[in-house]
Amino acid sequence: MGEINMKIKDLVGRITFHHPKGNCLSHEIINKLIKLLEKADKDPKIAVILIQSQGSKAFCSGASLHALKKISTITEGINFFMGFSNLINTIRKLSKFIVARVNGPSVGGGVGLISACDYVFACKQASIKLSELSLGIGPYVIEPAVSRKIGSAAFAELSLDSKDWKSSKWARDKGLYNHISENINQMDIEIEKKLVSFASFPKEASKRLRQLHWKGTEHWEKLLPKNAKITAELTLSDFTQNIIKSL
User: Fold this and answer.
1) What single-letter DSSP state applies at residue 19?
2) pLDDT tens digit sequence for 67-122
3) What is the pLDDT of residues 188-208, one digit of tens each?
4) What is the spatial distance between Cα 85 and Cα 6, in angstroms, rounded to a whole number?
5) Contact by Cβ (8 Å): 56, 188
6) How confident is the model at residue 182 (pLDDT cuts 50, 70, 90)?
7) 153 Cβ contact list (under 8 Å, min separation 6)
8) Looking at the predicted structure, is the pLDDT value of residue 150 above 90?
9) Distance CA 132, CA 130 (A)
10) What DSSP element (H or E) covers 179?
11) What H or E segment, with its residue span, contains residue 17?
12) Average pLDDT of the segment spanning 215-235
């Protein structure tokens, strides 16, 4: 279930994903998102990339609960969480800036996706939560991306308060969001202005600036797969299996 597509307009590659379960990230959506990002990065008709989800409720509820319930072996767990590892590593190696349109609340992997984007617009109701610890696991795969954006102290607070929502203001104050709007219409107006601006920058200058922004993350190539294995192992614990099955 779920769908994802990309439309090109005014030098912007607009990627939109949707899943009826809170715009969660299924294995299929993650893999297709990776392919679309790689395609957009190579397309000369695209100068900047926009990532958004469909609807006006949740931006992204994180990992697919349906997929989590199907994990019964360490291999299945590693394969699933490697999707998030591959997604973040793909994003950090792109040459074009990625703008995120956060239209509502985000959980877990959704926060990781936001953290990997270069510039983030959000509406007032776009609260965030890292619920992993309450499930008996942890946000290991996305931690480097989230900590890079908000710092280790804020990440610790967010990951420990696994049952509590943090407001969009909190996310803005910590550096996850760059701009907050009162409503979606206002947010979209601001996004279009920024997209025009980003698209006007020289390609090579943008590429080199993005490389500078992501300097020091090269070790993620090996780190994120290790973290995916840790998450997979914890997912198979009795505690986590019982909670997941009850949801």
Assistant:
1) -
2) 999 999 999 999 999 999 999 999 999 999 999 999 999 999 999 999 999 999 99
3) 999 999 999 999 999 999 999
4) 22
5) no
6) very high
7) none
8) yes
9) 6
10) strand 179-181
11) strand 12-18
12) 98
Cα 209 from Cα 183, distance rounded (Å): 31
Token pair recorded at residue 54? 């469909």
Calpha distance 116→44 (Å, rounded)? 23
Q: What is the mean pLDDT of the chain?
A: 97
Residue ranges of the domains in the chain?
A: 3-186
117 Cβ contact partners less than 8 Å away, ≥ 6 residues apart: 51, 91, 98, 99, 100
Amino acid at 102: V
CATH code of the region 3-186: 3.90.226.10
Indicate the burial class of 155 (C-beta count within 10 angstroms; 0-12, 13-18, 19 or more): buried
- Choose among 94, 107, 36: nearest CA to 214: 94
Distance of CA 16 to the CA centre of its chain: 13
Written as one letter, the residue type at 220 is W
Q: How far apart are the first and last CA of the chain?
A: 19
Is residue 243 within 8 Å of residue 100, measured between CB atoms?
Answer: no
- Looking at the DSSP bridge assignments, the partners of residue 53 are 17
Alpha carbon 233 to chain centroid, angstroms: 22
